[in-house]
Design a protein that fits this description.
Blueprint lengths: L11 H7 L3 E2 L12 E2 L8 H13 L9 H42 L3 E5 L2 E4 L5 E7 L3 E9 L5 E10 L2 E7 L12 E11 L2 E17 L8 E4 L3 E4 L3 E4 L2
Antiparallel strand pairs: 1-2, 3-10, 3-13, 4-9, 5-8, 5-10, 6-7, 6-9, 9-10, 10-11, 11-12
Helix pairs in contact: 2-3
């Protein structure tokens, strides 16, 4: 007695043609290299993948059923695809929450004072001005040169010998002649001597946040400081009231 089956002559291409999954290429096991579009999508989604698997099972030759190993491999592919889809959704959710958190953080910084890594500050010379120089290793001496917008040295502050760490300094707003300088923008150059060579030091100075720029491409949050321009949030040492 002979057994016949109406689907025994169908190839994978025939199977796919009878399903809603469209393909451009196929591999020997029918699924591994399928490049498809389901319901208008360019990538093979998990629903289309499962539909393709079920369709293939329905149309297999009963006299030559699919090898168990190949079927298990296809199930593993489906599981991996579903896991990747879930991971993508999770990452997208985390990114969205992070952007929302950045926006909330940004709105709370506007109008507040910060101490940021910069060498320039807007100074009210009627008050004392505080800054910090970062000393990488013990040295003698550490000096702070304060210049105006014309590049003229207004005041030189000698901090003497300093240990490694943050060296704080205070400017009383007066020039080297003891006169009160004009209020405005000043540059602070901190220097130390290492191995008989003058070395520039990083300075942290106070400023006021005027506005905040949030990157649309996942970049760093930028603070726009009054009269100074932009500085990255990562360059901020402290945030005041």
């Amino acid at each position: 007695m002979s057994v016949s089956d109406s689907t025994s002559g169908l190839s994978l291409k025939d199977v796919l043609a009878n399903s809603s999954v469209k393909t451009s290429t196929t591999s020997s096991n029918g699924l591994a290299a399928a490049t498809s579009s389901a319901t208008g999508k360019n990538a093979l989604g998990k629903d289309a993948f499962l539909q393709l698997l079920v369709t293939q099972l329905k149309n297999q030759n009963p006299l030559e059923p699919q090898d168990n190993g190949a079927f298990v491999a296809q199930l593993a592919q489906f599981s991996s695809l579903e896991g990747i889809t879930t991971l993508n959704d999770t990452v997208s959710g985390i990114a969205g929450n992070y952007n929302s958190s950045q926006a909330l953080q940004a709105s709370s910084l506007v109008g507040r004072s910060v101490v940021a890594q910069t060498d320039t500050a807007v100074v009210d010379t009627s008050k004392s001005f505080n800054g910090t120089a970062v000393v990488p290793a013990s040295t003698n001496p550490v000096t702070i040169k304060i210049t105006d917008t014309d590049g003229k040295v207004v005041r030189t502050i000698d901090l003497g010998s300093q240990q490694a760490g943050n060296a704080s300094f205070i400017w009383d707003g007066k020039n080297d002649a003891g006169e009160v300088a004009k209020a405005g923008t000043y540059k602070f150059a901190a220097n130390a001597t290492y191995d008989s060579q003058a070395t520039s030091l990083v300075t942290y100075l106070p400023a006021t946040v005027n506005s905040v720029t949030i990157s649309q491409t996942g970049g760093e949050l930028m603070l726009n400081l009054a009269g100074l321009g932009s500085v990255a949030l990562s360059k901020v040492q402290t945030i005041g009231i």
